[in-house]
Amino acid sequence: MYLLDVQEIDRTAKLDAGTLFDLVKLSFGVVAGAGALVALVVAYRRQRVDEAGAHREATRLHTERFSQAVDKLGSDSPAVRLGGVHALAGLADDAPDDNLRQTCIDVLCAYLQLPFTPDPGDDPAHQEERHRYLALRKVRHTILRLIGDHYRRPQGTHRSWQGCDLDLTGVTIDGNMNFADAVFSGGSVSFEGAVFSGGRVSFAGVVFSGGSVSFEGAVFSGSRVSFAGADFSGGRVSFASVGFSGEVSFAAATFSDGSVYFNRATFSEGEVSFGSATFCGGSVHFDRASFSGGRVYFGGARFVGSSTRFPDGRVSFADAVFTDGRVTFIRATGSAPQGLLAAVGTPAPATVTLPSDWVPSIP
């Protein structure tokens, strides 16, 4: 019978064996598919549970090892402390997440920030104290070396600490420390108030491309510190209120972006070299800096489209090239820097401004 062009189902029709077999196969396929889906969901959940359990176990083991390493750092024995230093560095390398790695680095930095007994000297009456001082200094120098080694490794590779915060505020750096070719592109790095009083410290070829790096209030008094070939291409780097009385080199460094501050820095002894440095972008500030002694050298420096402000005192610009942008000497006193008059007299499109009360003289 037809109703509205729809044929009524023939209830008397019978399924043949082939059709029945196809339906049975289809039913089994649906059941099997549903079972596979359930098995997949169960396996996924089991994997997540296993991963969470493995992470909890790794965290538990890390915590146990961390406690043991910290206990070693508090030992009276310098040898045991040295073992704790290496244990913490290894824990930072193997940490299951970034937060635990940062905790290990923070503890190593905190150890360096602890006060320590100064060198008692070579007096035979204090021989035992001197031996202990030298042993504990070895622990500190090992931490400095390990920090430098880890920050020089490319970010993302095993044992790299790049991108982690580094707080060496107020630390006395009286030994070698090597950051050569490291990249500071994120996080916070602080050497505020640090005292560079011995050894060689290298930031040669370092790339400052992001984040914040501060040397504010640091003292460069005895170390040989090199920023030779460093690339200041982003972020903020502060040398504000730094005391330069040792040997510091910015030779062939490039200031191309970001902001670099030498505001209120004091150049009083030793030698600070910006020889062959390139100022080609961003901003470099020497506002209220004081040049009262020693030697500050800008020989061969190039100023191309940068915003650079220089103040007080005797600064050598021998063979410097001012080709664009603006160079300002504010609150300057004393004789004009060597080579500056010749630079101003060249037909370069730079703007070099001297204060009205500054009487230039030819050396």
What does this structure look like?
By secondary structure, the protein is α/β, with parallel strands linked by helices. It contains five helices and 27 strands. The protein has helices spanning 17-73, 78-94, 98-113, 127-151, 340-345, and strands at 2-3, 6-7, 166-167, 172-173, 177-178, 183-184, 188-190, 195-196, 200-202, 207-214, 219-220, 224-226, 231-238, 243-244, 247-249, 254-261, 266-267, 271-273, 278-279, 283-285, 290-291, 295-297, 302-303, 307-310, 321-322, 326-329, 351-353. Strands 3, 6, 7, 10, 13, 16, 19, 20, 23, 24, 25, 26 and 27 form a 13-stranded parallel beta sheet that branches. The protein has a six-stranded parallel beta sheet with strand order 4-8-11-14-17-21, with no helix packed on it. Helix 5 links the parallel strand 26 and strand 27 (351-353). Helix 1 (17-73) packs antiparallel against helix 2, helix 1 runs parallel beside helix 3 and helix 2 (78-94) runs parallel beside helix 4. The longest helix has 57 residues, at 17-73. It starts with a strand and ends in a 10-residue tail after the last strand. Mean pLDDT is 80; it is low at 331-363.
